[in-house]
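Have a close read of the entry that follows and walk me through the local backbone shapes. See right below:
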Amino acid sequence: MTPRATPAHAPAAIVPQWGDAAVTAPITAVHVVAAVDEKPATDRPAYARADQHVKLHAVIESDRHFYADVTVATLGTRTIHPEPLAHAPRFTIAWNRIEPAAASMSNTDDTGFHFAAIDYEATAIPDAHELALAADVRPTLTPDHGNGVGTMRFQAVVTQGDHAIASPGAEAKRGRGSGGLTDAVMRVSIRRDDTYLGYLTEMYGQPYIWASAGLSDATHESERLEGSDCADFIVYGARRSGKKLAYTWTGGLPQLTTLLAAGTRGDDGIYRDAGGKPLAFPKPGDLILFPRHVGAIVEDRGTIGVLDDRDVMMHTLFDSPKEVPIADSGYADKPVELRRFR
């Protein structure tokens, strides 16, 4: 899909040109590589913390030569040493986000389970005409719950004369076993920190997918940051934290966790056990499991020291992941179990 057009009333920006007009060889491909801090640039999916810098670079391919503003890059299994861009054919460049157009979807319908195609759109990044770009993972087509953390995919579009050449984008469907995109589309995931909750924030900006799945755990839609349902979201963070767990549904989580406490909400919003004793507020990152829904505990904001519906949880439910008070989860009036991964 083509990027959105600039409004007619907007002033025309001066788009810089790169390369040498005397070089007439056609540009045959453009690749996107990412460098985290000072690490070498690669076309593999990039993972970084919010305190790190992720820079995207365009690699221009022409007549079996590569040109870029980096001295070394990895493309697949190849290590290349690009030539200076001054030796490349003349071109201009623009950048797109490749982002989900909807915050909620389903892999099931009246016919049963199937991998529904995720609707990705290319959205132009305004005034982005440089050879390198700081990766900004904030979505523009769906709500931004991450404030700078989450996952985004990117595309570079190079124009040589009247001919446009783009790196893989929304058309690069993964096909069987997913509704997502191949790794040919540059993917950047930025997390809040290296805690369990921090790893969960990598999923921000990705859709809620009812019955998210994969042909294996390694190809699971959550593992590839294409989206998740509530249970797969929770398991994703544990897997990123180093736990060897299989993706499962809410009914499978008790087999992976230890029960800390259980109870129901009173009229005052406080959760109490069967004997009427308030449930102690657990550690951030512990699970709050409802019948057929689950989230992760984030912050004690209500009556300090006890679990109540003003406390904050992180979850995904008919929207991309976000933090909400338990009262706004849609499940606050249901029985709860507080659980911890073993």
Q: What stands out?
A: The longest strand covers residues 150-160. The chain has two domains: 27-189, 251-341. The helical segments are 196-200, 230-240.
